[in-house]
Amino acid sequence: MSDVEALKAEIKKLSARAMQAKMDLHDLSEELPVNAHLILETAQKAHDAFVELEAKRGQLKVAEAA
Length: 66
What we know:
Layout lengths: L2 H29 L7 H27 L1
Helix pairs in contact: 1-2
C-alpha cells in the first residue's frame, strides 16, 4: 500500500471518528442541563478529532503533490 493510499485509509477512519465526536456533542447539547458536567470533555474530544483529521488531510495534500 502506498503512502497516499495509507493516508486516505487513515483519513477515512479519522473522519468517522470526528463525525461520531460531533454527534456526541450534538446529542449532549440536546440533553442539557442533564450531564452538563460532560460539556468540556465532550467538546475537547470533538476538537481533538477534527484537529487530527485536518492535520492528516494536510499530510495527504503534501504526499499527493510529491
